[in-house]
Amino acid sequence: MADQSQQKAVQTTGHAWDGDLQEFNNPLPRWWLWTFYATVVFAIVYWILYPAWPVGKGYTKGLATTTFESADGKEVTTHWNTRAEFIRDMQSGEEALKQRAYLVKVGSASYEQVLNDPDMMAFAQSMGRVLFADNCAACHGLGGTPAQIGSYPNLRDDAWLWGGSIERIEQTIRKGRLGYMPPFGKVLSEAQIDALANYVLGLSGNPVDKAKAAEGDKLFHSDQAGCYACHTNSAKGMYAQGSANLTDQVWTVADVPDATDIKDKLARVKAVIRNGIERHMPAWEGRLSDEEIKLLTVYVHSLGGGQ
Amino acid sequence: MKLTHESIEINAGLMIVLIMLAISIGGLVEVVPLYYIPGTVEKVDGVRPYTPLEQRGRDIYVREGCYTCHSQMIRPFRDEDMRYGHYSLAAESQYDHPFQWGSKRTGPDLARVGGKYSNAWHVQHLNNPRSVVPESIMPNYPWLLKTELEYSDVAARMRALKTVGVPYSETDEEYQANVDKFGKDVADRLDINNAERNLIAQAEAGNYDGDPGRVTEMDALVAYLQVLGTMVDFSKYDEGYFAEFR
User: Which of A60, A183, A191, B97 is 20–30 Å from B244 (CA)?
Assistant: First the structure.
C-alpha cells in the first residue's frame, strides 16, 4: 500500500498477526523521554532526603531534618516529617509568629487594656470573627444572630440571659451554661397556664385579657407555680439563673414576634410554659486556649450589647 | 518456556499475572510495612472501641453516606489545627472499620466534633440543617428521629468487628483482658453478652434525641458524633511526643 511504502523508514516490532498485520515501533518523543528520566532522578533524590523505604522494623529516614523546640525548651532535631514540620511552623513560621505576637500581647493584657487599645481591638475583631464563625456560629448564627428565635440566644441585642459584662461572658464561654425551666404541663391546669400566658404577654404591652392576666399575676407570684423564684418578682429575670426578662419585647424561646395575632402569641407562650426549656451551651475551656477565649469574649462583648 | 518479550505478549494469561505482580509492588511496599512497623499506631491512652450504641450510630453514619461530604482526618497544618483542633492520630482510628479518613470536605471535618455542640443542636441540625445554619447545603435527615433503632443484631455486628480485631469481649478471659486494658467501666460496655442492655441503658441515660422513652437512630448517631475525637487527652502529651512516631 502507498501509506506503508512511505513509512518504510519506521521500524516494526517484528510481530506479524493474522499473516500480515504488523506494529510500528516508533520511538517516544524526546521531551517525554527526558521528563520520564527526570522523574526517576527526582525519585532517587527524594528517597535520599525524605523517609522512604521500609527496612526491617523501621524505615530509611532520609537526610533532611526538622528542628523545633521541645516543651522544656531544648532544641530537638529530627528527621523530616510532617508532624515535626507542623510543630516548627507553629513555633517559628512567619504567620504564626505574627499572630503569636498579638496573642501574647492580648494574653498578658487586662480586658480594660484590650478594650482601650485600638490595635488589640482590631486584632480581637478580626480573629474573634474567625473564632466565632468556627465555633459559635453553628448555634448563634454568623455574626451573632441565630437563624430563628427559639433555639439559641441572639448576641447582637442588649438582652442577656446570663449577663453581658466581660466577666460573665467569659464565664459563659469557659464553663458553658445549662438553661433549664421545668415543664409545667403536668403541674398546672390548662386554665392556669392560659392565665400565666396572658400575664406574661401583658408585661410587654400586648393586648391581653385583663381578668386572666390578673389571675396569672397572682399565680406567677405564688408558690404553686413559683415563676417568681427564677424570673424574680418584677419578672425581669436574673443572670444567676439565666432566666429571661419577661417585661421587654425580646423573645428568646417563644417566637412571639412571628405570631399573626394575640391568639397565636398566647399559643406560643403556653407551649413554652407547658413543655419547659432545656438549653445547653458546651464548655469551651480545654477546646479553646485562654487567649482565644479572651478574644471571643471581647468580640461577643462588642457585638452590640456589651455591658 | 522462556520468558521473552514475544512469549509474554502472545500469552494473555501470563501477561495478566506479570502485570499484577508489577503493579502490586508499589502498593505492597507502601502498605505492608505499616502492619509491622511498631510506631505506625501511636502509643496513647484513652482510645477505646465504640460502645454498642456508638457503633450503631457509626453504622448509620456510613449508611447515610456522611463520609461523602465529611472527612474525619485533621492534618498537621496550622490552619487545620486552628479550625478543628489537634491533628488526628492513627491510634484514634485503630478500631474503625472502615476508617473515615479523607480529604473530601464539602462539609467541615468531623474528627473532633464531639462535645462541640449540644445534643439538641445535633438533633435540630440533622433534622433540618438550615434551621440553625441558613447557609448550609447539607440535606435534611428527618427519618432519623422517627425511626426506631434496630438493635437486635448489635451483638452480631460486634462479633463481626471482633473477627477483624476490635477487642469486644465474649469470654471471661477476653473480658478480663479488657478490664486490664481499658478499666472496668469501659470493659463492661464492650461485652458482647450485654450489648443490647448496654445500648438501651446508654440511650436512656444520654437521652441524645430529647425523647427518653424511645431509642431512635438519632440517639445512636448523636451518641457517635459526641464521642468523635474526645478519647485522647492531648494536654497530657508534649507536642514533640507524636512526632517521634513518624
Answer: B97
